[in-house]
Amino acid sequence: MKGWMGKIKALALLSSLALFLSGCGKDNLTALVPKGYGSEVSFNLIILTTVVMTFVFLAVIITYVIVLLRFRKKKGQEDFIPKQVEGNQTLETIWTVIPIILVIIMAVPTVIHSFTLSDTSEADEHINIDVTGNQYWWHFDYKDEGFQTSQDLYIPQGERVYLNMIASDVTHSFWVPSISGKMDVNVDNENTMYIEAYEEGVYWGKCAELCGPSHSLMDFKVIVVSPEEYDQWIADMKDVDPEAEPESAVAQEGKELFEENNCMGCHAIGSSPAQVGPNLTNFGDRTKFAGFLDPTKENLVDWIMDPESIKPGNKMTGNYPDLSEDEADKIAEYLMQLQPSEVTPDSAGGLK
Amino acid sequence: MSVTATQKRSVGAVLWDYLTTIDHKKIAHLYLIGGGFFFILGGLEAVIIRIQLIKPENDFISAGFYNEMITMHGTTMIFLAAMPILLGLMNAIMPLQIGARDVSFPFLNSLGFWLFMFGGLLLNCSWFLGGAPDAGWTSYASLAIDSPGHGVDFYVAGLQIAGAGTLMGGINFLATIVNMRAPGMTYMRMPLFAWATFITSVLILFAFPALTVNLFLLMFDRMFGSAFFDVALGGNTIIWQHLFWIFGHPEVYILILPLFGLFSDVFSTFSKKRLFGYTAMVFATMLIAFLGFMVWAHHMFTVGLGPVANSIFAIATMAIAVPTGIKIFNWLATMWGGSITINSAMLWALGFIPSFTIGGMTGVMLGSAVADYQYHDTYFVIAHFHYVIVGGTVFGIFCGLHYWWPVMFGRILHEGMGKLTFWTFFIGFHMTFFIQHFLGLMGMPRRYWVFLEDQGLDLGNLISTIGAFFMSFAVIVFIINIFYTAAKGERPSPDPYDGRTLEWATASSPPPHYNFAQLPLTRGLDPLWIEKMEGNGKMTPAEPLGDIHMPNGSILPFLMSLGFFIAGFGFIYQVDHSAWYLALYGGMAFALGCMVVRSFKDDHGHHIPKEELEREAD
């Protein structure tokens, strides 16, 4: 029995060591290394409540251990009848009042920050972006600038950005753990939240409300760039000429195939209010294809050929004629050269 | 005498006995068998989920099937495993603890069980009929309306039928405790488990109607073309969330309060001490139940209800920590100064304290709305509620089964296997769920079919899956223990643990079907203990020996439930073809017919003559 327990202890020690080595998770994904206002406020409360609760846990565990060490039935005293204590008013008052005080300590900052985080009174003075959650992709409408994009949300570092969010089909939830806590994206009403990122970089975003089979593949990214680069990016995006002919001949063929095969029925290139499918204006700069595939041509061809096997339940499947691999390859060539701006995820530090 | 009779009876006779029984102890057996079956089913679903998540981007099962798994795991464990097993324990023990011969409405008791069983079977039929529900156990309206096929329809019909059964159970227990306490058994002398049953029943009474209404709304939307949740037609999906959690949060307390009661009894018995702060424990339970109705929106902090609502619900949520803390410290104080025996039943109770305390801690942390913006819908929440529901409810169920097995089945579970079950389950449980707190904070949302490669989540998920295998092993050992005990188990005396309460004061183990030949006279808290301390050794009868009036068994509850089961299929499939209205109306008419028979056929029960009681006593 002893050796067995020893092995368990060793295992526990090993796993906690492994946990320590893996640290607090992946940079720019984990909520444990906050890099934005919302995540910092939440993190502070996570720490505060953890500390208070650890104190309570220790109080319980120390008493528990003492009880188990001191009050086990002893050999030779099998017939011992302990004193039948009814209670103790002083003790019971102590373990009622102390928790009340601890609750107050945690409740006050919770209430204060509930208000600060949901304060949208200054939204008009800041950047506003309309966000639409769809099965299984994200649409971002820079309505003040008059253009749209999808999947990669560009924001300037150090500035508050207000997101006005609604879902087109079922409820989703917008979560960029390193920058901010999440907010649901409802079908009923527009929810507004603001985010503010402290550092430039590419941040992982996740859908956090079950929305169908490909819920776990509904990733997006937030690209935080310097305010100057942001202005540059805005200008580049507004300047896009959707009719521009691609340079290479293959891409030109791809453009024709794109037009012939009904792709444009759902996917806009250039500004368009339509949002049946993701806007592809800067598709060549995407951090990932289809939300989670590495941005290689092979992946894109696979995706165009058979989206259902890659992202079950997506709305693209079956809405366009069957394509040969050669055709898909040309379309991919066309899409991957849609790079209207010098400001890209790579220039922001790249996806870690 | 009863034992030899059992051995001689044919399988058919036993089956008929159980189909028609209205004896609370046999209904308890049925609940334990039914709930145990679904617990194993839900456990298998859990293992499949964990295998899928053993490594990144795994393709063990498909995305759609995975969503069916998580939905059915949650729904099965809560509605078809945990609650029925608890109803089974309450049925087996509560009437004994208050010195009653049965519950107030034995017929209703049987009907409640069969409704649960048929509801659960209906829900699980979906596996074979085109796919199980896949919108999560919470079945949020926008996704539930969007879900193709009949899966969600099975969810609606199955839970509606099973829920009606639970509601009947709750009402029945309330009536029983109000009316059928033995002479001298005042409210403030009831064991904590009886108190917890009472308060849990109040929760069931007030919480389940919210679920019933919600399920009806969803049923009308999916099957009869209404638009309660269709935004395009002026509906609102947030209503579903509110109604679901107005039911759903009290449901959490329905799952844990009975075990709080049980643990109070167990700590007291195995420490040989009176429960510390009895009055405070009773009122803390009531306060938890009351506050349990005031906190539902903490499941909705990220919905966008605004800072006022979030603040109010955050404070109310944290406030629940106070009465819960009182209970934990009172349990510790009960053991303090005692003479503690550690056997397999007590091990589960001792394992509960640190496990549940962690679950309670993370509960308070989740209650802080601002921090919850990070925790919400991640593996942190998964970890939290498994610490509460497994560390509290499942530990409690195992504790209750080991503790009361002699009362329920007349045998003692094998101690060595009991301890092996505990240790493997305890280790596996912490391995599976502790690491999930960190997975959540490291960016893993819940209900993810796959997690991507290179996100720092691989090791945590692997450890978690290994833990799940430990728990599976523990459950297998427990099942072996049950069969071993049934075949070779030790036959205990009616009071093997030096008990304090009336379930240990019966004439035999298991008790005769009328429980007490003469109702016992209760002279204070822990009535049996009082008599032992005063040297009497057994309860003083409160009445002279006389004929006992007992109700007759009936097949009608089974038939009524069968009618609703058939009607359930009718409701689900009438959308496809109007011929299914035949099943709908046929099933309903059959159930109604049974009710008419029940109403107009006089059944005065039977009497057990005094002479027979005297014979058995000898």
UniProtKB/TrEMBL annotation, chain A:
Topology of this chain in the membrane: Multi-pass membrane protein
Cofactors that this protein relies on: Cu cation
Keyword terms of this UniProt record: Copper, Electron transport, Heme, Iron, Membrane, Metal-binding, Respiratory chain, Translocase, Transmembrane, Transmembrane helix, Transport
Catalytic activity: 4 Fe(II)-[cytochrome c] + O2 + 8 H(+)(in) = 4 Fe(III)-[cytochrome c] + 2 H2O + 4 H(+)(out)
Keyword tRNA processing part of the UniProt annotation: no
Domain named Cytochrome oxidase subunit II copper A binding: residues: 124-236
Source organism, top-level taxon: Bacteria
Compartments where located: Cell membrane; Membrane
EC number, UniProt record: 7.1.1.9
Residue ranges occupied by any Cytochrome c domain in the UniProt entry: 249-339
TM spans (from-to): 41-69, 90-112
Signal sequence, renumbered to the chain: none
PANTHER family the record matches: CYTOCHROME C OXIDASE SUBUNIT 2, CYTOCHROME C OXIDASE, SUBUNIT II
Function, in words: Subunits I and II form the functional core of the enzyme complex. Electrons originating in cytochrome c are transferred via heme a and Cu(A) to the binuclear center formed by heme a3 and Cu(B).
Family in the record: Belongs to the cytochrome c oxidase subunit 2 family.
Name of the molecule in the record: Cytochrome c oxidase subunit 2
Annotated source species: Virgibacillus alimentarius
TrEMBL record, chain B:
SUPFAM superfamilies recorded: Cytochrome c oxidase subunit I-like
Main location class: membrane
Alphabetically ordered keywords of this record: Electron transport, Heme, Iron, Membrane, Metal-binding, Respiratory chain, Transmembrane, Transmembrane helix, Transport
Membrane topology, as annotated: Multi-pass membrane protein
Gene3D superfamilies: 1.10.287.70, Cytochrome c oxidase-like, subunit I domain
Transmembrane region(s): 30-51, 71-93, 105-129, 154-180, 192-219, 239-263, 275-296, 308-333, 345-367, 379-405, 417-439, 459-484, 555-573, 579-600
Keyword Metal-binding recorded: yes
Location in the cell: Membrane
Record domain Cytochrome oxidase subunit I profile: where: 10-523
Sequence similarity: Belongs to the heme-copper respiratory oxidase family.
Protein name: Cytochrome c oxidase subunit 1
Organism: Virgibacillus alimentarius
